[in-house]
């Protein structure tokens, strides 16, 4: 493999430099060196983790040239930067990805082997930074990778949670949450930058005064201040010199001790202050969709947004510019409403601290922000009780009132006398107890608003944000999500990657639409055989993993039917279970039934406070217990719940699937990205017309997709007419049998109460229309079984799925954001050596500050 380190501009770096060289012997020496000088260990007593750390530092050294040159270039040249604001970044492990993107995987593997170590074992040592819940956080991570690969100047801003998403264990079939101690052995990928700390105010009150120019001004007198310390992680692009920064903030007390309190003898009070401040970034809220209005969460959001905006302003002023041009320097994207408080914060910084007139500040603010909406579930739209909001952010509440006053004046002119519309549009919900509506703030304060799949963007315009669309249709657009093929194909599925590259070269890794060149190979029998053998080998690997983790032996020749994602009623894992019970019952009735053996695999975490989701996990594991221990089912049906679904596990699971379950109620899943990862790796999808499934089906071809269920419109109409799930139960014998088995305690050792809440919800409410979609799903699954019997046909469909997924690269998505929202361009990075092997430090004339 040719490495970019051998490019001419690197020629002045001596190849044997221990910190940059790529010769096998140099890498071995660097590894030994880092073990000794960073870990402080002799090989005899070093743990596997010590070796992992030594390797991570070896790789980081080889990354720093790119990173520092990138940062310096952005400061020196007047480039426009994308600032991606997200409360979550679900990054996954860094080491493998950095090896791949730097193009040094093979050399490092050889050096590690030559040192008597196993690279896969070292890779397995890395605790993944689980700083997100699911799709939204993972999207932010894919976008950071694509931005770097496309050489777009960008910085990601977020929170350095000390505890990320909890680790999940399954005990007695139930989810148990274990705190995620991802930092316990240190994090070699980050650099703390305490010199770039900023202060963030909280609480207190405001007062007004007249400034020296006779202007009315407001001043915020907070009752606490916390310090934000940035921790920087490089995000390196694929085979380019760009390494952008992910800057995550950690909260700290401004001083280690409050000396005033200390002096009056209140030592513990002083320490309390410190503990209080540090709690701010202690833990990620583990709720995927619905939000709960906890003060600490609002503090987290405001904290990281204020730190980030202050950081951007400092950078802009550092380059000698005036804040008039802030929006030409930064395109700030809001990943959902979590950072939407940024709109009020930028106004505060411009008006109160930099004394801009309101109108100018508002112009700058609107030009700066873009807003991505991620949900259609009304209960997940973020809103904060006025009292809570005002006590934490009194000045921001005033600013929001002022934004709202001016906004509603504008609305009034346009819609004379339409008070109902005014109430609907207001930033303040006054229908009951008063709330600040964060989505409304985001819409008013941004110049661009987008949904994350074609259907989702249409539904936003038609329902969720309809009044805003009528007001400003030009602000709205769609940006269908994508995922990075580097992590989700090359790294996760090296076997398939090698086969594809052997046939069409390797350009597809950065131009995923090139996968189309595989289409003719679908008609080639020997290629199909290779394709099948690869899938078989990956399934074999997953089977070994399943056996090791759960003790369940599964047949790698069975159909791997997989649903991995957060557990949520709208995602309908329990519909999948109804199908399993249906099959189980049919097999019990007719042991000669001719259906291909299936292995049902589930994975996903439930929010700790979401009772129904936790009960669905118990349902899956209970059905698994009965099915897996029934001798009649031997090798025909297996059910597995894989604990602790995360990015690392996703990398094992997506490539091993024959069938991808994307069965949310139509109109509920904004986009989905798991659906894309499966399909890219050659799984066929069984799915509803929801989120990006629609576009996946369009691309793959309807004949290569198993479609079932009501459309979003039919769901809407049925609910408007009045939906009576009981009628479906009464009218469908098979469905009745299945629900009766469950209710009768067949899967709960006779306990008829255990699943009662789930069954009652289905029979009497069924908000996600499982019973309405049941028969269609069962029929469609029957088609899946029939199709799987014809392995040649199935393989053809599998190849075509992979060949036609080019659209779902996050590179495509990022290009669209760049052209249509951010108006930014690539800035290639040239490497300059700062430290040469034969020369020491020379401080530049500008000197040490
Ligand atoms: C891709 C991904 C998700 C999102 O999955 P959906 O099926 O789109 O909900 C969630 N968690 C992890 C770890 C992922 O990799």
Protein model, in words:
- Residues 1-15 have low confidence and may be disordered.
- The chain has 33 helices and 25 strands.
- Strands 1, 4, 7, 8, 11, 12, 13, 14, 18 and 19 form a 10-stranded mixed beta sheet that branches. The protein has a 6-stranded parallel beta sheet with strand order 22-21-20-23-24-25, with helices on both faces.
- It folds into 2 domains: 80-93 and 128-481, Glycogen Phosphorylase B (Rossmann fold, 3-Layer(aba) Sandwich), CATH 3.40.50.2000; 492-715 and 767-808, Glycogen Phosphorylase B (Rossmann fold, 3-Layer(aba) Sandwich), CATH 3.40.50.2000.
- Helix content is 47%, strand content 14%.
- It is of the alpha/beta class.
- Residues 134-135, 138, 565, 646-647, 650, 672-674, 677 line the site of pyridoxal-5'-phosphate.
- Pyridoxal-5'-phosphate (PLP) is lined by residues 134-135, 138, 565, 646-647, 650, 672-674, 677.
């Amino acid at each position: 493999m040719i490495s970019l380190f051998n490019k001419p501009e690197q020629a002045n770096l001596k190849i044997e430099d221990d910190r940059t060289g790529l010769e096998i012997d140099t890498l071995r020496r660097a590894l030994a060196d880092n073990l000794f000088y960073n870990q402080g260990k002799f090989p005899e007593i070093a743990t596997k983790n010590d070796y992992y750390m030594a390797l991570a530092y070896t790789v980081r050294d080889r990354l720093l040239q790119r990173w520092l040159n990138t940062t310096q270039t952005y400061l020196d040249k007047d480039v426009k930067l994308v600032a991606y604001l997200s409360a979550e970044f679900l990054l996954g492990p860094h080491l493998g990805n950095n090896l791949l993107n730097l193009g040094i995987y093979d050399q490092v593997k050889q050096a590690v082997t030559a040192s008597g170590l196993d690279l896969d074992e070292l890779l397995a040592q890395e605790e993944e930074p689980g700083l997100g819940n699911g799709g939204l956080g993972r999207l932010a991570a894919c976008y950071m990778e694509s931005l770097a690969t496309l050489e777009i100047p960008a910085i990601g801003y977020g929170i350095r949670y000390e505890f990320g998403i909890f680790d999940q264990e399954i005990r007695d079939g139930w989810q148990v949450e274990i705190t995620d101690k991802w930092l316990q052995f240190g994090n070699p990928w980050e650099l703390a930058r305490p010199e770039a700390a900023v202060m963030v105010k909280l609480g207190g009150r405001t007062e007004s005064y007249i400034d020296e120019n006779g202007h009315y001004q407001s001043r915020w007198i907070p009752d606490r201040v916390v310090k934000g310390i940035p921790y920087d992680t490089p995000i390196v692009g694929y085979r380019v010199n760009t390494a952008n920064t992910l800057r995550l903030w950690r909260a700290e007390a401004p001083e280690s001790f409050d000396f005033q309190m200390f002096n009056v003898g209140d030592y513990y009070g002083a320490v309390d202050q410190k503990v209080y401040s540090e709690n701010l970034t202690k833990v990620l809220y583990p709720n995927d969709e619905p939000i709960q209005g906890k003060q600490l969460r609002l503090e987290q959001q405001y904290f990281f947004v204020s730190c980030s905006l202050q950081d951007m302003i400092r950078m802009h002023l550092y380059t000698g510019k005036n804040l008039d041009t802030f929006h030409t320097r930064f395109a700030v994207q809001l990943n959902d409403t979590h950072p939407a408080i940024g709109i009020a914060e930028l106004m505060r910084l411009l008006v109160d601290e930099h004394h801009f007139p309101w109108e100018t500040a508002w112009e700058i603010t609107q030009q700066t922000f873009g807003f991505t909406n991620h949900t259609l579930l009304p209960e997940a739209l973020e809103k904060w009780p006025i009292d809570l909001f005002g006590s934490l952010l009194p000045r921001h509440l005033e600013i929001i009132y002022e934004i709202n006053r001016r906004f509603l004046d504008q609305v009034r002119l346009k819609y004379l006398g339409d008070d109902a519309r005014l109430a609907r549009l207001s930033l303040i919900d006054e229908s009951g107890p008063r709330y600040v509506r964060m989505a409304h703030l985001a819409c008013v304060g941004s110049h661009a608003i987008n949904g994350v799949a074609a259907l989702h963007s249409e539904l936003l315009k038609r329902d969720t944000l309809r009044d805003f669309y009528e007001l400003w249709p030009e602000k709205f657009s769609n940006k269908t999500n994508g995922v990075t093929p580097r992590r989700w194909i090359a790294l996760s599925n090296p076997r398939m990657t090698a086969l594809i590259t052997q046939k069409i070269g390797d350009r597809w890794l950065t131009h995923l639409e090139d996968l189309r060149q595989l289409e003719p190979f679908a008609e080639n029998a020997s290629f199909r055989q290779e394709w099948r053998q690869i899938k078989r080998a990956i399934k074999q690997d997953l089977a070994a993993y399943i056996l090791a983790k759960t003790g369940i032996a599964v047949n790698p020749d069975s159909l791997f039917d997989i649903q991995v994602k957060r557990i949520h009623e709208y995602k309908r894992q329990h519909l999948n279970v109804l199908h399993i019970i249906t099959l189980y019952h049919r097999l019990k009735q007719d042991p000669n039934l001719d259906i291909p053996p299936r292995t049902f695999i589930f994975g996903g975490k439930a929010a700790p406070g979401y009772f129904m989701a936790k009960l669905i996990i118990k349902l899956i594991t209970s059905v698994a217990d009965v099915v897996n221990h029934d001798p009649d089912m031997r090798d025909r049906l297996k059910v597995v719940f894989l604990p602790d679904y995360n990015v690392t596990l996703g990398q094992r699971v997506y490539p091993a699937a024959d069938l991808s379950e994307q069965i949310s109620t139509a109109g509920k899943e904004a986009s989905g990205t798991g659906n894309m990862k499966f399909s890219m790796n050659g799984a066929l999808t069984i799915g509803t017309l929801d989120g990006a499934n629609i576009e996946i089906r369009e691309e793959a071809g309807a004949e290569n997709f198993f479609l079932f269920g009501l459309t979003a419109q039919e769901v809407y109409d049925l609910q408007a007419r009045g939906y009576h799930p009981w009628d479906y139960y009464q009218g469908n014998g098979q469905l009745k049998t299945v629900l009766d088995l469950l209710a009768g305690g067949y899967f709960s050792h006779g306990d008829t109460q255990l699943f009662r809440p789930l069954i009652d919800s289905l029979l009497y409410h069924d908000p996600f229309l499982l019973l309405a979609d049941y028969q269609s799903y069962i029929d469609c699954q029957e088609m899946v079984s029939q199709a799987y019997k014809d392995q040649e046909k199935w393989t053809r469909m599998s190849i075509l799925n992979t060949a036609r997924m080019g659209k779902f690269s996050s590179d495509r998505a990022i290009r669209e954001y760049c052209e249509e929202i951010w108006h930014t361009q690539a800035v290639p990075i040239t490497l300059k050596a700062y430290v040469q092997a034969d020369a020491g430090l020379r401080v530049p004339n500008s000197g040490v500050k």
